[in-house]
Amino acid sequence: MKPFTRNCMTTFELQESDSDHHMHPFTCGSKLQSRRPRVVVGGRGVWLIDSEGEEILDGMSGLWCVNVGYGRTELVEAARQQMQELPYYNTFFQTTHIPAVSLAAKLAELTPDNLNKVFFASSGSEANDTNIRMARTYWAERGKPEKSIIISRKNSYHGSTVGSGSLSGMTAMHSQGGLPIPDIVHINQPDWWSEGGDMAPEEFAVARARELESVIIKHGENRVAAFVAEPIQGAGGVIIAPDGYWAEIQRICDDYEILLIADEVICGFGRTGNWFGSQTFKICPDIVTVAKGLSSGYQPIAASIVSDEIAHVIDQCEFSHGYTYSGHPVAAAVALENVRILEEEKVLDHVNQVAAPYLKARWTSLGDHPMVGEARIVGMMGSIALTPDKENRAPFAAQTGTIGEIVRDQCFAHNLVMRHVGDRMVIAPPLIIRTEEIDILIERAVQALDDAWKQIKKEDLWR
Ligand SMILES: *Cc1c(COP(=O)(O)O)cnc(C)c1O
């Protein structure tokens, strides 16, 4: 078969051209130029193939999205058929189409009972932008336009557009381009390992949840529209809140009549062992954001799934919002096929009965490594905290991220994709990973940690 993307260039030439013309997201271009990106040319299952023919185990499912793995021909076929039949149409002006109708109904079926209406977008960022406008419009329509503050968390990730980037609690993002937009407030994250001090995890969890209550009281309940959070913070380093956190958050949102928006862009579609992270942590959201695993990344598609109450109110007005590609037929058809695969192949059963228990046992054993403090995992997303002093949960003296990057580079050298977030290492492999592949993942992670440990000692960074 003729390759679709013509390549008559060497790896070196591809890298040169990349550096001349391609600006990468969240990357320092000049640094990348000197270090050279790997050129990924294909994938099968949990494996990536690069332009040198190396096979790399993808411990990150791309960017937390390729839940069913690479190379699924059913998804290709769904796209091909839909492109042939109706490659594009919109749903703006009194029209609809079969893929949007079917996917919306399917999402209503999969989500908890009170969530039955869907607003489509093409990315998690866009869907969260929709949520900002939807939550504020909801209160305005109910005669409370002053209820416009949205509370989010430091070190959360909700996207990179001006709106969703404002919700995101990452200082590096806020220092560029004049973010956040008005009426976004950030509270502290439930990261016990780094910020818990002498508190017991459960005590810390409740204290951090109650910051939400303090902020609501400070601004006044009549000013606050919503609280938004990821069930597990993904890009922030797979931060799993200690027990008790979510129950307290739920109580506060209920007591003060604040909408709870669960950003399930990573946690959705099986990542935590349930269809949604909200089910894993017993959260009852008013709006759920989905993207990534919705199509296993094969097509850009996202959605805000909203409660009957919100849908009822929003439906009374003309909601002046939407994207050219909202509910794009090809993307929706691929998402439907992806959901069919998850259901018919019982991928969640594989996660719960095979992959997650096995991965958990092997992943937590990394806690014995001299460099690893906590090793935590829920379902198929986990993290390890790197430390020179486990006892005191101390950070490295070097600038945050220095050690993480060394470990990341060592993983890459061992043909394993594991991402670093500061000095935490994170994984989120495809849900279909087999136990033999988990063994390889752990084996390579240990080799990478060992080599990084030697390098850190040699470079006198072990302190
Ligand atoms: C990736 C991510 C987003 C943003 O999604 P994009 O498709 O990159 O815009 C939003 N929220 C969470 C939790 C994410 O992980």
What's the structural blueprint in terms of helices and strands?
Layout: H1 11-21, H2 29-35, E1 40-44, E2 47-50, E3 55-58, H3 61-64, H4 73-85, H5 98-110, E4 115-121, H6 124-141, E5 149-153, H7 162-167, H8 171-174, E6 184-187, H9 192-195, H10 201-219, E7 224-229, H11 245-255, E8 259-263, H12 277-280, E9 287-290, E10 302-307, H13 308-314, H14 329-344, H15 347-364, E11 372-378, E12 381-386, H16 402-413, E13 416-417, E14 419-421, E15 424-427, H17 435-458
Parallel strand pairs: 3-13, 5-6, 5-7, 7-8, 8-9
Antiparallel strand pairs: 1-2, 2-3, 4-10, 9-10, 11-12, 12-15, 14-15
Pyridoxal-5'-phosphate (PLP) binds at residues 123-125, 128, 157-159, 230, 234-235, 263, 265-266, 291.
Would you give an account of this structure?
This protein has 463 residues and is an alpha/beta fold. The strands form three sheets. The chain has a seven-stranded mixed β-sheet, with helices on both faces. The mean pLDDT is 97. The chain starts with 10 loop residues before the first helix and ends in a 5-residue tail after the last helix. Helix 10 (201-219) runs parallel beside helix 11 (245-255). The protein has helices spanning 11-21, 29-35, 61-64, 73-85, 98-110, 124-141, 162-167, 171-174, 192-195, 201-219, 245-255, 277-280, 308-314, 329-344, 347-364, 402-413, 435-458, and strands at 40-44, 47-50, 55-58, 115-121, 149-153, 184-187, 224-229, 259-263, 287-290, 302-307, 372-378, 381-386, 416-417, 419-421, 424-427. The chain contains 17 helices and 15 strands. The structure holds pyridoxal-5'-phosphate. Pyridoxal-5'-phosphate is lined by residues 123-125, 128, 157-159, 230, 234-235, 263, 265-266, 291.
